[in-house]
Design brief:
The protein has 177 residues and is of the alpha+beta class. It is built from four helices and seven strands; from the N terminus they run αβαββααββββ. 24% of the residues lie in helices and 35% in strands.
Amino acid sequence: MKTIAQKKPSQITIDDGFVKKILRPYREDTSYLKKAVFEYDKDSNEYPIVKGDFEIKESCYIDDTGHFNAVEFNICFNQIGYTYLGYSIKEGLIPELEGFSKNNGNEFFEKQLSHFLIVNIQSSYKRPINSDQFYGEVGIKTITKKASCTFIIMSCKYYDDDGGRSFGEITLAILNP
């Protein structure tokens, strides 16, 4: 197995075309993730993180609340989480998900919506976040492979330039392809 330190430098901007392919299932006005950067510490055995720049010009479901909320937390997690997993699968960084790299990586895109399930999501809000421009980070805390699926617990946080912040933890069940 390739180690992350052998594969890539410590920070990689994920190609815009790849991010757009990840976001293809979303309506254009709900593609909130604008940029994603894959980061890891070469000297650490911890899982890498993905940092993203977000922008919500207009909510897809409600009049402007003036702040980032729980529904947007979930939508943004989906977008940055899919980007994290899709990029990791493409680069062969999560052996437990290697079945999704078949067909030149198209297996992930074919099963993105049907096989990646949120089974638990928790979020908390410390200070209101300006949804016009904010940032997010996701990372893997644990991976547990079972016979029929893989469980991944991910951490997630969002913040803005004015001290707004929220945190969360998401458990995914990923069905074997």
